[in-house]
Amino acid sequence: MAEAHQAVAFQFTVTPEGIDLQLSHQALSEIYLSGVRSWKKRVIRLKNNVITGVYPASPSSWLFVVIAILATMYTRSDPSMGLIAKIQEHLPVSQSMSSQCQAVLSAVLFSTMLWLLLIFTMRLCLKQLLSYHRWMFEQHGKMSNTTKVWVVSSGAHLSGRKPLLYSYQGSLPNLPVPVVKDTVKRYLESVRPLMDDTQYERTTKLAEEFESSLGNRLQWYLKLKSLWAANYVSDWWEEYVYLRGRSPIMVNSNYYGMDFLFVTPTPIQSARAGNSIHSFFLYRRKLNKEEIKPVSLPCCSYQFERMFHTCRIPGERTDTVQHWQDSDYIVVYHKGRYFRLRVYQAGRLLSPREIEFQIQRILDDPAAPSKGEAHLGALTAGDRIPWAKARTKFFSTGLNKRSLDCIEKAAFFVTLDDDEQGMMGDDPAASLDNYAKNLLHGKCYDRWFDKSFSVVFYKNGKCGINAEHSWADAPVLAHVWEYALATDSFQLGYNTEGHCKGEVDSSLPKPQKLNWEITPECEEQISQSLDVAQKLADDIDFHVFSFQEFGKGKVKKCRVSPDAFIQMCLQLAYFREQNNFCLTYEASMTRLFREGRTETVRSCSNESSAFVRAFEGGEVNVCRRLLRAASEKHQLLYRMAMTGGGIDRHLFCLYVVSKYLGVESPFLKEVADDGYGVSYSLIGDNMINFHISCKHSCPQTDAHKFGSQIKKALHDIINLLSGAQPEPKKPEAGRPEVKKDQ
Q1: For residue range 570-593, what is the model confidence (pLDDT) as tens digits?
Q2: Which of 45, 216, 687, 740 is most buried, taking the most CB atoms under 10 A from its CB?
Q3: Selected catalytic residue, list 469, 479, 650, 691
Q4: pTM for the complete prediction?
């Protein structure tokens, strides 16, 4: 109860002598400092809005324009061509103001209007420059004259002023709506390797009927939407692909990020948490000040807005994403208990050593979980409708509501795991698989899967991150994750004993344990959600391996795109397993456009299938030519997807419109999106990490065997590019469809 008393600013009791009022000066001080901090953020936000709003100009340029106009007036010239005099005639000013003051005021108003017109013109020019993407399709070293002019012009607009995170938002072009005819043509081309002549002929007829009739009608609605919406795809994508899904988001939607594989900065769990949590709040401070540097290529940054103090709220029909402006605490889960940990004291961010001290207090706390508390997080791991009903029925009032609000409004969620993870033991490969699988779903109740992200700290000092997908895509979360890892290890560091550096304020109040009143009926729902989540987790077959024989450095020396190289390896590996081809989806970003998210690259093409068939058929003499043609086609598809020429998001939106209109299209029903995940990352020049997932319940899938096929394909294709003669292998049957996780 001591912590509860510290949390209020005053207490009063009624006595025979009257009312005894006791003020808590510490609590009042905290309230005051919290208010000061909040107002500072508002001022910073207002200042940044002004700076961003006038970019690529600067607020100080207004003064330059005013001085220039006033200077010309004193030389008895009129740059306004009579407009200043017109403004002066209609000024609603007092008669006591002298004519000279009226003239100066009129000049200032004219200067302001001229300045705003110049800003509008500059932003319009910048928007046109950012709409030019032809440079992406030109061969390296062969730049057209148009692109040369574009480089000079864009450099003139973008050089000089240092942009803030959101400076480019108002100048980014809108995502264009592709022509139906072009989308249909590219769709037919993408499915040709997957169909026999009869199937392809049927699909072609459906496509032609759609293009000549319903397609144009649906397209009209999309064009209308594109006129007033910042992005004709993103809001529907967030709602229908993510928020309206009623199945568990654990595994199906949430994704994870790993710690360093070969380095553990400290084996002390609380110390690792101290540095990392402090790093996340340092990043948040930079984010609030918009000091996160935009990438060199202007990209949309709107997804960063909901990174912290954001939570997905379940609904019976659709979920919503709720974002709060600020939060000075995190919620920590340990051994079935939830704790509220404030990271600010007297208006300052706690040091890493102080956060470590607070985390250790939680680890040492002997309190038992409240009745029904231990597995409470399973509600966020099961089906969405039961969770929505349970939230309304059991968590909408009283103690449960206050505790749930605390979790949902926290900056982010932290789990202190009692397990040890990472590459360790006698079988590091198996331990790496377990590590990845644990990050994906944990125990199905020790994460709050609805939070924008949860950070997991293991007993041996390893850590990882699990993220909800609706609010942003993986590259955005990767930015803060990489910052936290780098700041933790290379800037903050640890002392010789492995603890965080710095001193501890021993007067810090203890983390506050959240309390719950879980009824037997609620416990039953928690148990049911846990059963659903556990079955889903047990069905996951996961394999992670770090390929270190070579990396993108060697591939680049062969003058092939590393991404295209890996995609061709996946095509070859799959064909050797299945003896046919399948839809293969790779995600690309569309953040060159305002509020852009992702688009699909259909990596299985006529060119890639021709290469694989030739390679497996022993036609080595033509394989290199076919491989380069397939790689170039893949790069073309990737660039088209990035620049608004993809097909899947367009087809998706046409499908959504057809549902709104209540019309059916056999062609749109042909669009498929199934398969299993193969995610990869290129680390430096000599390492490629692969993450492969499938389901045990599918008898044709085996993540480890498929991983072996990928390794062999990597060696065979690099040998082909290097001039070695590979030994072709006859294809075998029995493997599923592959896609890169989106």
Answers
A1: 999 999 988 888 888 899 999 999
A2: 740
A3: 469
A4: 0.88
